[in-house]
Amino acid sequence: MEVLPELATGDAKDLRRCINDLISLLALPAVWSGGDPSQVLKTLLDALVRILRLDLASVRLTVAVGEAPVEIVRIAERHGPTPPAHEICEALNQCLINGSRKWPPPLRGVMGAGDVSILAMPLGLQGELGVIVVAAERADFPLQTEALLLSVAANQGSIGLQEARLLSHQKQVSSSLDDRVVQRTAELARANEELKKELAERARIEVRLRQEEVELKLSEARKTAILESALDCILTIDHEGCITEFNPAAEHTFGYRREEVLGKPMANVIIPSSLREKHREGFAHYLATGEARVLGKRIETTAVRADGSEFPVELAISRIPLEGPPSFTGYLRDITERKRAERELQRSEAFLAEAQHLSRIGSFSWRVPTDEITWSDQLYRIFQIDRDAQLTFELIGTRIHPEDLSIFQEHIERSRRERSDVQIEFRLQLPDGAIKYVHVEAHARGGHEYIGAVQDVTERRSSEEALSKARSDLAHVARVTSLGVLTASVAHEINQPLSGIVTNASTCLRMLAADPPNVDGARETARRTIRDGNRASEVVTRLRALYAKKDPEIELMDLNEATREVIALSLSELQRNRVTLRQELADDLPLVTADRVQLQQVISNLLRNASEAMSAVDDRPRDLLIRTELNDRDRVNLSVSDVGIGFEAQTAAKVFEAFYTTKNEGMGIGLSVSRSIIERHHGRMWATPNDGPGVTFSFSIPTRSDLLGKTDTKVQ
Amino acid sequence: MGLRQERRAAERLLVAVIDDDESVRESLPDLLGEFGFAARAFSSAEEFLASDCIGQTRCLILDIAMPGMSGPDLQRVLKVRTPEIPIIFITASTDKAFRPQLIERGAVECLFKPFSDTSLLEALNSALHKN
Questions:
Q1: Interface confidence (ipTM) of the complex
Q2: Per-residue pLDDT tens digits for A185-210
Q3: Under 8 Å between Cβ of A59 and A44
Q4: Among A487, A506, A514, beta carbon nearest to B117
């Protein structure tokens, strides 16, 4: 070795120094213990710079160890500017690459103006770890010892680096292990947390499920209760149309038990065979398209019971709003009763319409505040107003006879004001010119509405007129009959004055034929002849008035005067029948509105009846009392009392019936006609048995009546 | 006229007229006067019965229908008397059925008003001849 000669030639001081340096280098691993690779390299380079008095020391690693840099450069402190580290590294790079051809390569200009000597030493046995490069400007660099020291340092560095690397690796492994433990621990903790959460969630879900279960049970209970207690049939079906629920009402209505029908196609159970195909089509159509004719509506259809009988039902089907295949609820109600009631109602309405048609009565309602008028069909027919027309009083007014329109409107206005019941009769003048008489009766209901009826009384009116005519004819028959009965009386009336005339005339002639003629006597008898002639003439006039058939003449008349005239005419007959007539005619009797001749006919009839009733009476005077009096200030009474055979109380009403008679002769129509005459005068007529023997016939008529004003009313 | 009749009255036969009709009571006595009779008129049977001339009455002209006592009633009353007074009934009634009944009961005649002076004279003659 070259060292030895040098040692041999160097002084001890150098050797010592060398040994010290060697020791320093060998001590380095102790310093490095536990240090990281960069710490190892840095302390190594620092030691080399100091020991070898280097200007530059650098290490370059081929493989990165731990977190140490790949290249470390140490530059000794010196005078003058120090080039930047990266330039030095660049220069070293060049030098090392070129060094392959010329080693040791010159490193010029790197550190300044002078040349530097460079020494490189591989790290690791094969230099696999890297290389240490040192440089100094000294000319003696490198000495042999210095190269030795560098070599030792490189070995130490390799070892330290290896150890550090190992350590670093161990550390890394340990750290990674730690990290993994930490990570794993964290993961575990997290997992734990998750688990806890999940458990909590599960508990919550559990609680919720339990709650839901309770609610479901409740809801189920409610549903069951509803199903159980519902009066309507409730059944549910699934998407295949099979029954899934069938409540007790359905059981009752259809006659199936729930167990029998669950799971069976509804169509086969409750739908009549005639409708089944249609139902299937509709159901299939819904499932395919979602379009349904029956969903969410009430429809009326026919269902069939277990016993095969069919009946009308009202059906509402709704889809159950749940996920999954559609299912449905059907609500069914047996409407047999309702249908029957509807038919009854229709029938009764038809009856009513028919009745209204037959009776010519129409009904109406009138809501006064809104003038809303509703008519029955018949009323439209009576008024000949189109069924679709909007009913107004104006329109109705066009059908009312112009002369009656004001009366009609007056009644409407009064009804508006007073809301009192209405009863009027007026005429219609229809578009075809026909005249109808209608009678209206309406009652106020609840203050806001009138309900009433209108009757077409045209026929009644004409039959009333016909009846009136018949009465008139009958009265005439009665008069004529009476005339027949009265022939004797009439003849008597006439014959009395005639007798006077004939006698006086005979006397007159005889007086004139005497010698000398008795002129004064003849004049006197001639005067009496004229008087009796006038008297006969008056009788004839009165009779003609009484027995002529003519329309009534309503006038204001004095009942007493009319009575006296009748008495004058009847007196002789009464005398002949030995009837004693007593008159009690009230003094201050007001005038009455009446047909004089008709009233006289009634009085005459009463007198004759009274006289005839007493024809068999021989044991007492045949007293007849005729009296008039004012009754209640506005009615006048006339009564005729006899003491005849009389009648039982229960016969009193019967005597006024036509053809009722107790007499052998006569038609028995006298009293009946008399009463109809009195009633036509708005009066009444009655008969009462007397306390003693006989009967009193009476009539009363109003002193003032509207008979005078009514020119169109015929009074017979 | 009054004087002449009064003077002759004592010689003449008395005929009584009973009728409720005034015109008869006025006219008939004059005609009877012309026939040469004395005549008195009464308005009712009761009035005649109450008078003082029943005894002198040689003939009675009597109305059938009167208030109160009728002609036939009076006939029944007078029937018991002697000598019987002949009665000529007069009536304004047209019912001829009365006549045979009345004649059967003793009446001389029944005249229906109005009757002629000659038929009355004939009836009077029959009545006086009967006596």
A1: 0.83
A2: 888 888 888 888 888 888 888 888 88
A3: yes
A4: A506
